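Model: Ready when you are.
Researcher: Fold this.
Model:
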Amino acid sequence: KAVMNELMASMNEYKAQLEGYLYVDPDGVASGPLALDPTVTKLKSDFLSLLVSPITGYEFGSTYLSELGIKTSSSGGLYIDDTTFDRTYANSPEKFNALNQIINKSSNANSTVYLSEYTDLAAGEYELKQVSGNWKLGDIDVTRTDNGDGTYKFTSTAYAGFYVSTTDSATDLGKVYIGRSFTKIFDEYVNDMLDVTSSFTSTLKAYETKVTDISEQLDALETRADLLRERYNERFGEMESMVVGFNSTKTLLENLVKSWNKED
């Protein structure tokens, strides 16, 4: 449960950030910075898909987050359903390995599976056997090399960093399990999103550039406003001086006329 709570906290935080980016304010005032952006919309869709996709590649078969007790509330947040958690923990506790344990193994006791963390071999259950004279790992072509010391090595040109070593000379070597934990799947999803070549990174850079351009335009407008303000203040001062002058002349003329009237 500690592992699950930590995982859910990360996913709830991430989900909240995505929704903040995409929030559409009905009044159009407080919408998220990437509201209606198709790239972020797809990220959210992919994330929601992760929550309901099977976790494969384990000896017990496939499992789902919901089967482990991770559910979605009516408000959209993730939480642990204790009833489901307790039932699965009592009946199939090994399924919880799918949360944080990565496995690369064979059902054949004489075989060992090696897989680099950089090899993009899909999680799943594969049969390693000879089919019509050719060796196959599921649908993947593999080559068997006789090491000359009673051991054999199976490799694939399509997946460098993967191989199976065995002392078994049979033509059917059982099943190979490639299990990527959900934490690993989620981590890869986030890393792909943050990759410098990802569409999200491109969108974010474009947004940052737009914000910078707008800021520069605002600075330019503010500078222009200051110049206009200074110019109008100067002109207003000149006009005010003229008005004061007119008033003085008006007063002088009125006094002059009054003095003439008195003389008459």
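Researcher: Now this one.
Model:
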Amino acid sequence: MVEVNWKPKFIERYKQLTDIDKFLEYSLKPLTKTIRVNTIKCTVPEMRKRMKLTPIPWCKEGFGAEGYGLGNTKEHFLGYFYIQGAASMIPPVVLKPKEDDLVLDMCASPGSKTSQMAAMMGNKGLIVANDLTIDRMQPLTINLQRLGVANCVITRMEGAWFKGQLYDKILLDAPCSGIGTIRKSLKTIDMWNPNFSKMMAGIQRKLFDTAVGVLKEGGSIVYSTCTLEPEEDEGIVDYILSKHPEMKLEKIELDIKRGKPVEEFDGKEYTSEVKKCLRIWPHDNDTEGFFVSKFKKA
């Protein structure tokens, strides 16, 4: 087991939110290697013939794939699968894009969820995949090309600049403080600062306000993060419901173990509606930490 010097304020904060011993234990465990079969190029039965795979309950194209040098297999080079965290597969599954939808992926790089939605749409309809910097354009472009995604237009700009065009569905997998990704990157622990979460929450609110403005009536938004900070999760949900009465929160029904959504923390109270959201701790399903919520525009 890796030894880490946890910040006392971090420990004190997360003691209030979950079983701290299990959280710390699982945060330092290596992640199970998982893949998503890219049905644009390969069927699930065909991939199961090629590799020994363990199903992920909440995504029919998702599998555990231990014992392989996944990035060096011919199936990976050919784009038959994408190396993707099991929890990362949840937002597109919840959004449910269809083949005739116009979809906006506001923060798309490196393309894991964009390509997952493209496959769900049968490579039809249209996805606008946006991200901010040139550095993030490269992996997004390369991955979509390797996976054979053809129903996608890539844009590079501030997500908050979108206006005018109305979308059927929007995925806002927002930039965040990344506390759920400790298992992938231990530097997240050193970088943790509660003030950083406050800054990120400001960015998230701005992005979400924009998303509401470019969503069709009857359309859906999935807001997700890979952090476990209440201010960036339940706090954003509470903000949207109070500012945009036309947005209604939908309960996420999924075959997955989940943590209790946070209704009160650090002197702030959030609407009881947050019970409809999905808060996943690393020790719930042996994955990364994740938060997912789904809204519909009345």
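Researcher: Key takeaway?
Model: The mean pLDDT is 96.
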